[in-house]
């Protein structure tokens, strides 16, 4: 290779790298955090669950949600959905989880977080708990206002909902137990992995964007980082983790469970790529798939945790 050609290629690579880094740090994070419209189009009645449409005040907003009372309830679950989803997410799948919980004697309250589902939009962006924690706390206030004092009161979050639950508890949400399904603990890693899942490009290409989103675009960091919050928990917590989850990876669930004796980690049975329970999910594969693929195992883990005094 001649020297001029080598210099041309080097200049081209350097220019591309510089442009990509600048775009990743300054331009891409706002777009990566934008939420597409995702209206609610089904209800718990589709699963044979009795429910009530509710509106839950949070700040100046009225959040749209559901109250699903169990017959002779032995507890109540405050359910926090994932990023860009809503209370009816088929991805998890939430409606089937609600039915399983109600059938087991656990009442459920859930809402579409701000900027999600049928709830009002504010800035239209994901906060991973920065703002959404107030919406989860509002569910507890709604329960109190209805005179619903059933115990235990359980905070349950999936993916981003895990980060929301952790932040809400750190801000004073009073729950007796916490259940997290493939929680988003390391936001930089999850955002970078999400880039790979969505676009099929190496995750490291999205690392500058993810780092900038956390450090300069208002996502939780420092003392409010989900990992720090999890390691500081003083409440009995169960993490159900898919070992091969490509987005909220198991290494971080293992990290917090080893650091905090209050956290019990249950690794779900592995899911093969050919399993029909994840068909249509593409590179998302086993993300938040434990209940869909292994419902009996998941319910057994939940029951054991809830029953444990």
Concise synopsis of the structure shown:
The chain has ten helices and eight strands.
Task: Describe this entry's structure for a reader.
With 309 residues, the protein is an alpha/beta fold. The protein has one domain (33-307): Rossmann fold (3-Layer(aba) Sandwich). Helix content is 39%, strand content 16%. It has helices spanning 3-32, 94-103, 132-145, 160-170, 187-199, 207-216, 226-231, 250-259, 290-293, 295-307, and strands spanning 52-58, 61-68, 75-80, 106-111, 153-158, 177-181, 237-241, 263-267. Strands 1-2-4-3-5-6-7-8 form an 8-stranded mixed β-sheet, sandwiched between helices. Strand 5 (153-158), helix 4 and strand 6 form a beta-alpha-beta unit. The radius of gyration is 20 Å and the shape is globular. The mean pLDDT is 93.
Strand order in the largest sheet: 1-2-4-3-5-6-7-8
Beta content comes to: 15-25%
Q: Describe the biggest sheet?
A: 8 strands, mixed
What structural category arises from helix and sheet content?
A: alpha/beta
Helix amount, in percent?
25-40%
Distance between the termini: 71 Å
CATH topology: Rossmann fold
Backbone CA Rg:
20 Å
Look at the structure and name the CATH superfamily: Alpha/Beta hydrolase fold, catalytic domain
List keywords for this structure.
eight-stranded mixed beta sheet; 8 strands; about 300 residues; about 15% strand; Rossmann fold; alpha/beta
